[in-house]
Amino acid sequence: MTTKEIADRVVALNRANDHQTVYQELCAPNMLSVENWDGMYKEYNGMDEIRKKGEEWMQNVVEMHEVKVSEPLVADQSFAVTYYMDITYKDRGRVQETELAIYKVRAGKIVREEFQA
Question: Do the Cβ atoms of 113 and 26 come closer than 8 Å?
Protein backbone atom coordinates (compact mmCIF):
# COMPACT_ATOMS: atom_id res chain seq x y z
CA MET A 1 0.00 0.00 0.00
CA THR A 2 1.11 3.55 -0.62
CA THR A 3 1.33 6.11 2.18
CA LYS A 4 -1.84 7.76 0.83
CA GLU A 5 -3.73 4.45 0.82
CA ILE A 6 -2.60 3.71 4.38
CA ALA A 7 -3.58 7.22 5.50
CA ASP A 8 -7.04 6.94 3.93
CA ARG A 9 -7.54 3.51 5.55
CA VAL A 10 -6.48 4.82 8.99
CA VAL A 11 -8.99 7.66 8.68
CA ALA A 12 -11.81 5.34 7.55
CA LEU A 13 -11.17 2.80 10.30
CA ASN A 14 -10.89 5.42 13.02
CA ARG A 15 -14.11 7.07 11.85
CA ALA A 16 -15.74 3.63 12.22
CA ASN A 17 -14.18 3.31 15.72
CA ASP A 18 -12.26 0.22 14.54
CA HIS A 19 -8.86 0.82 16.13
CA GLN A 20 -8.03 -2.88 16.36
CA THR A 21 -8.01 -3.29 12.58
CA VAL A 22 -5.65 -0.32 12.25
CA TYR A 23 -3.11 -2.11 14.43
CA GLN A 24 -3.69 -5.58 12.99
CA GLU A 25 -3.72 -4.62 9.31
CA LEU A 26 -1.59 -1.51 8.88
CA CYS A 27 1.12 -1.53 11.54
CA ALA A 28 4.51 -3.21 11.77
CA PRO A 29 4.78 -5.64 14.71
CA ASN A 30 7.65 -3.63 16.22
CA MET A 31 5.92 -0.26 15.80
CA LEU A 32 6.73 2.57 18.22
CA SER A 33 3.84 4.58 19.68
CA VAL A 34 4.57 7.88 21.45
CA GLU A 35 2.20 9.82 23.72
CA ASN A 36 3.31 13.42 24.11
CA TRP A 37 0.94 15.81 25.91
CA ASP A 38 0.58 17.80 29.13
CA GLY A 39 4.29 17.39 29.85
CA MET A 40 4.04 13.62 29.61
CA TYR A 41 6.24 11.77 27.13
CA LYS A 42 5.94 8.00 27.02
CA GLU A 43 7.00 5.42 24.43
CA TYR A 44 5.32 2.07 23.81
CA ASN A 45 7.41 -0.45 21.87
CA GLY A 46 5.73 -3.23 19.91
CA MET A 47 2.16 -4.38 19.60
CA ASP A 48 1.89 -5.96 23.08
CA GLU A 49 2.66 -2.65 24.82
CA ILE A 50 0.48 -0.70 22.38
CA ARG A 51 -2.50 -3.03 22.90
CA LYS A 52 -2.11 -2.76 26.68
CA LYS A 53 -2.00 1.05 26.40
CA GLY A 54 -5.24 1.01 24.38
CA GLU A 55 -6.99 -1.32 26.81
CA GLU A 56 -6.01 0.83 29.79
CA TRP A 57 -7.22 3.96 27.99
CA MET A 58 -10.57 2.35 27.15
CA GLN A 59 -11.03 1.20 30.78
CA ASN A 60 -10.87 4.87 31.78
CA VAL A 61 -13.52 5.95 29.24
CA VAL A 62 -17.05 6.35 30.62
CA GLU A 63 -18.65 7.70 27.44
CA MET A 64 -17.52 8.84 24.01
CA HIS A 65 -19.82 11.72 23.13
CA GLU A 66 -18.18 12.61 19.82
CA VAL A 67 -15.05 11.78 17.85
CA LYS A 68 -14.10 13.49 14.59
CA VAL A 69 -11.21 12.52 12.32
CA SER A 70 -9.79 14.97 9.78
CA GLU A 71 -8.71 14.15 6.28
CA PRO A 72 -5.03 13.15 6.24
CA LEU A 73 -2.18 15.43 5.26
CA VAL A 74 0.12 13.10 3.31
CA ALA A 75 3.83 13.26 2.45
CA ASP A 76 6.01 10.60 0.83
CA GLN A 77 6.59 8.47 3.95
CA SER A 78 4.45 10.10 6.60
CA PHE A 79 1.02 11.56 7.22
CA ALA A 80 -0.82 13.50 9.91
CA VAL A 81 -4.40 13.38 11.12
CA THR A 82 -6.22 15.57 13.64
CA TYR A 83 -8.59 13.91 16.09
CA TYR A 84 -11.25 15.88 17.96
CA MET A 85 -12.63 14.02 20.96
CA ASP A 86 -15.41 14.81 23.41
CA ILE A 87 -15.07 12.08 26.04
CA THR A 88 -16.03 11.55 29.67
CA TYR A 89 -13.23 9.84 31.61
CA LYS A 90 -13.41 8.23 35.04
CA ASP A 91 -10.42 10.20 36.29
CA ARG A 92 -10.83 13.55 34.47
CA GLY A 93 -14.54 14.00 33.86
CA ARG A 94 -15.75 15.31 30.51
CA VAL A 95 -12.97 16.58 28.26
CA GLN A 96 -13.00 18.11 24.79
CA GLU A 97 -9.59 17.88 23.17
CA THR A 98 -7.89 18.00 19.82
CA GLU A 99 -4.91 15.76 19.15
CA LEU A 100 -2.49 15.67 16.25
CA ALA A 101 -1.33 12.20 15.23
CA ILE A 102 1.78 11.87 13.09
CA TYR A 103 2.45 8.53 11.40
CA LYS A 104 5.64 7.28 9.71
CA VAL A 105 5.38 4.61 7.02
CA ARG A 106 8.10 2.27 5.78
CA ALA A 107 7.70 -0.68 3.39
CA GLY A 108 3.91 -0.38 3.39
CA LYS A 109 3.45 -0.44 7.19
CA ILE A 110 3.13 2.16 9.92
CA VAL A 111 6.33 2.00 11.98
CA ARG A 112 5.73 4.97 14.30
CA GLU A 113 2.82 7.00 15.57
CA GLU A 114 3.04 10.04 17.79
CA PHE A 115 0.14 11.80 19.46
CA GLN A 116 0.40 15.46 20.51
CA ALA A 117 -2.27 17.57 22.13
Answer: no
Q: Give 96's strand partners.
A: 86
- For residue 105, what are the β-bridge partners? 110
CATH number of domain containing 100: 3.10.450.50
Range of the domain at 16: 3-116
- What burial letters (b/e) apply to 13-48, b meaning 16+ CB within 10 Å? bbeeeeeeebbeebbbeebbbebbeeeeeeebeebe
pLDDT digit string (tens) for the chain, length 117 residues: 999 999 999 999 999 989 889 999 999 999 999 999 778 899 999 999 999 998 998 999 999 999 999 999 999 999 999 999 999 999 999 999 999 999 999 999 999 999 998
Look at residues 99, 113, 117 and name the one whose alpha carbon lies nearest to residue 10.
113
CB–CB of 79/7 below 8 Å?
Answer: yes
Q: Rounded distance, CA 37 to CA 96, Å?
A: 14
